Amino acid sequence: MPAIPSLEELLRAGVHFGHRESRHHPKMDPYLFGVRNTVHVIDLEKTREKLQVACDAAKALGRDGKTILFVGTKDQAKPLIREAAMRVGMPYVIGRWLGGTITNFPVISKVIQKYRSLTRSRDTGETAQKYTKFEQSQINQEIARLEEAVGGIAELHRLPDALFIIDIHEEETAVREAKRKGITTFAICDSNVDPTQVTYPIPGNDDATSSIQLLVRVFTDAVAEGMEERAREMARAEAAQPTAAQ
Q1: Within a domain: residue 112?
Q2: pTM of structure
Q3: What is the CA radius of gyration of the chain?
Q4: Among 187, 164, 179, residue whose Cα is nearest residue 68
Q5: Is there a domain that residue 94 lies in?
Q6: Tens-digit pLDDT string for the chain (246 aa)
Q7: Does residue 244 belong to any structural domain of this protein?
Q8: Residue 217 domain-assigned?
Q9: How far is the C-alpha of 7 from the C-alpha of 24, rounded, in Å?
Q10: Enclosing domain of residue 146
């Protein structure tokens, strides 16, 4: 398992900083240490405990070949989510969450298919051969629009097995859709949200880039470790197969 950050590492990253008291959600109380200068302080012992539980589950998903959809549409989360998801070959959403991505997946699949078709035609040169410069410009604009909407989920052929979310207040639609479909959810939960809305809450600062970066890295390390175990097991199984008669 990836090493769970020490209390000192979590403190350095600012994982303990919550929101002002006025934005407090009472269901986060079990994960709060207290208040300092009107700002809630997250109990980092609880963060370490819940992060360990989440990483154990994430590693199991990676080992079982499951798909985790990474979600983070806030500016400070976007590059971190994209990089982490690409590192483990998982889909991601960093633009606006499209309503129905989970609850109306067949419709979203058609949008994805259109995006794939247009990009394939452009990349093979078919678009340049068939259309005028003006028409190509229009098509490229449409590709850019679709890239923003579904580029990160272009290879998502079925519903994901789990979601990893930064800020469930910001991504409440994604959380609600996953819950309706019974899909496992992992999320960084700040002091202003209801952690009972997700399967694996990770108490922590979901605004500071340093906090997001640290927690995303540890979570992704766990997924990667599970995937590596799966690859080794598959290689061993393949090596154990009897060689076909020549």
Answers
A1: yes
A2: 0.92
A3: 21
A4: 164
A5: yes
A6: 678 999 999 999 999 999 888 888 999 999 998 888 889 999 999 999 999 999 999 999 999 999 999 999 999 999 999 999 999 999 999 999 999 999 999 999 999 999 999 999 999 999 999 999 999 999 999 999 989 889 999 999 999 999 999 999 999 999 999 999 999 999 999 999 999 999 999 999 999 999 999 999 999 999 999 999 999 998 988 888 876 554
A7: no
A8: yes
A9: 23
A10: 104-156
